[in-house]
User: What shape does this take?
Amino acid sequence: MTTLKTTPLNAAHRAMGAKMVDFGGWDMPVNYGSQIDEHHQVRNDAGMFDVCHMRVVDAKGDGVRAFLRYLLANNADKITLPGKALYSAMLNPEGGVIDDLIIYFMTEQWFRIVVNAGTADGDIAWMKQQAAAYAPNLTITSRDDLAMVAVQGPNARAKVWEVLPQTKAATEGLQNFQAADCNEYYIARTGYTGEDGFEVMLPKEKVEAFWYALNKVGVKPIGLGARDTLRLEAGMNLYGHDMNTEISPLEAGMAWTVDLKSERDFIGKAALLANPPTRKLVGLVLLERGVLRDHQKVLTAHGDGEVTSGSFSPTLQKSIALARVPNSVAFGDTVQVEIRDKKLAAQVVKYPFARNGKACL
Amino acid sequence: MSNPSNLKYTASHEWIKTEADGTITVGITQHAQELLGDMVFVEAPAVGRILKAQEESAVVESVKAAADVYAPVSGEVTAANSELDSAPEQINSDPYAAWIFKMKPNNAADVAALLDADAYQAVVDSEAH
Assistant: This one.
């Protein structure tokens, strides 16, 4: 058995009664009791997530913007104000998704990139390889000295200000997808739940105190179980489930993040233009009793599809899923999903399923 | 929570209660519900279905995962707990009361041969390592 990697909050999770699981080689909390209660806690009040396993990468040097313009499917030119953030796919030359990530504009010589945990090492190797060929003067640094906590929910921002009052002035005016540099705290109005809130990057040695201070003002710890149902209700992709290196972002609900309009070239662009999408990502709501799960087959009048992320929605009290289906499938269609030995009816819907505390359907 | 000593158990985490009339009641253990987490769906076997020992007989689904419930012995299904249709979370809150189905065993000796509480606890302990 290999040793699992731990975040600086590992002891805190155990002290708070977390059930720990192996999550891609990381020893992480799946819940601290009931994941459904944790889900509602975030929709209704405020919860905190240990996201220290995700990786902060700083790209610095002259020409960093031009490099990102080439590296990413979304256009780094869209962000020009310090703190502005942009969600993007990073593609391989075949047009498959290496990772989905967020970049932050710091200065013309410095962009910050936040990538997924499981893909981080490969991402950094890929970035360095591309930089060596395209922008050899850039430095690409994994910020292993930083920790990250997501605080999410309608009351999340107010709770962060209770704990870090010195950051309020700089962060209360932040729009969605905008961040502020508050000395040791880099605070972004972003998240993975469909709720308001912050993602806070801070020095590793400060994160445990920050975690306990948030808990003291009523922010409850939330495990990976609820993180998954929250993001699924919010219609947010999970890397490795809804997309991977074999899947075009145009078939993963990410067309809005792919800039094909500008003249610029980027890695994967030629492949995307040569291979127009034949499938698309849609939402499913199960009309019968049961639970949709990843990889179940979806039978439609236009051919088969597959559930890419399926679970139970605590907000809707029904099973929901993201599924990749043929392009001709329309919203409102009823399809069949193979669940064990049965074929159960599901309706094709536009996602998100729930955001900002409310059902969207 | 300890495993009630008046029940029998399987290594696949079912508990079995022998009723006065010789039928058995089947549910999943405290350990099983803890592993699975919040229950959201239970599919019990149809009444009258003939089950073989270790056959997949019911499915319990938590938010996290689906798990099969196996027939502890061979026999015929005599009842299914329809309360779990609308309140599957009873399995989390009181696993030894939230029964899933009842069956009439072909052979009472098969039930007697199942694990007792101590033997089942040893199975749970060995899984933890």
About this structure: The helical segments of chain B are 30-36, 83-86, 90-93, 108-112, 117-127. Chain B has a mean pLDDT of 96.
